Every structure is written in structure tokens, then in C-alpha cells.
Please model this.
Amino acid sequence: MDITINSLSGKDAGKLTLSEEIFGLEPREDILQRVVRWQLAKRQQGTHQAKGRADIQRTGAKMYKQKGTGRARHSSARAPQFRGGGKAHGPVARSHEFDLPKKIRALGLKHALSAKARASSLIVLDDLAMADAKTKAVVESFAKLGLKNALIIGGPELDQGFSRAARNIPNIDVLPIQGINVYDILRRGTLVLSKAAIEALEERFK
Model:
């Protein structure tokens, strides 16, 4: 699969052949859904906690005698049916994380990349560096490329000036190649990869 390489100024910078094994697959929604669900579950905090009857600071004495009152038999005032009692079956702090095979995770990333390539939402840039790394200059550069909602993936080391300048732009995310993930690829309209990022991906999936 051949794709045109652009520069940040919006000019053509040659051609590049993309690997069919990474960018030419038929996207499968079931695999993408599994990986996104795994990602979101892994980052969920799980710090929700309700007080059960054992956590309530209240007397444990029997409320009133067992017989002779005509009322229901009760023991502790910490029981859930009483005002101020513990909550029955409430949420407890726990991890929502679950396992997903490495092969499925790798396949999910390939299918996400292929989905962007198939939808013509993939742009390749020769380099993510600017001499005048100011937010205004980066916004103008993105306007030439038609970028309004995009995930930008650079090589192992990002240009600090470009990264800082793009940080304040709404709906634009900039990550090094180590941070590439299925959820961020799918949540943004356009995927922008540098040449260094593509080389790293092809090396990773050899």
C-alpha cells in the first residue's frame, strides 16, 4: 500500500510503502471492541466503596426484647433496613482489570491502524519538528493539513518544542510511539504518523 508523505508545511515529501500485514487488514469490530473494553477496564479506578453493616459505628446491642412486643424480631440497628444502617450488596473497592491475550492486543492495534488506512484517515508526516515551535504556527500548519481532530504519533523521542506547542490545541493528542493504543486511535478522527513511528511499528510487528 503506497501513501504520500507530507511535511508540516503541507507539501509533498515523497512516497512510502506501508506493510499490508499492519495497514491492509479487514478491520474486525469484535476484536476492536475487546481491546477497547480491556483498556477502559484497566484504567478504571475501582475506588467506589459503600459501608456495609460491619463498617457502621453503632451499638451492637439487641434493639428490644425478642418476645412480647408484637413487633418483628430484630437484633442489630446496623442492619440495612434501618436508617443509618449499612448498605446491602453495595459497591466495594476492587480492580476491574481482566486479562487479554497479547496476540489479541497486537491484532487489535493492527486492525485499528488498518481501519484508519481504509477510511483514508491516515496521514504520514516526514518529521514532527518545527523551527518556530509556537502554538500559533502549529495551528496554521494543522489547518493546511486539514487536522481538526487528530492523534499524532511520533518516534521514540518527541520534539519537545512541537509537543509543547501542540499541547494546548483542542482535540489534538501527541504521543510517542510507545504510547500508541487502540482507544486513542479510534476516538480521534484522523491518525497522523511520522516516518519514525511507521518504522518503529514495522520493527515491532516483524
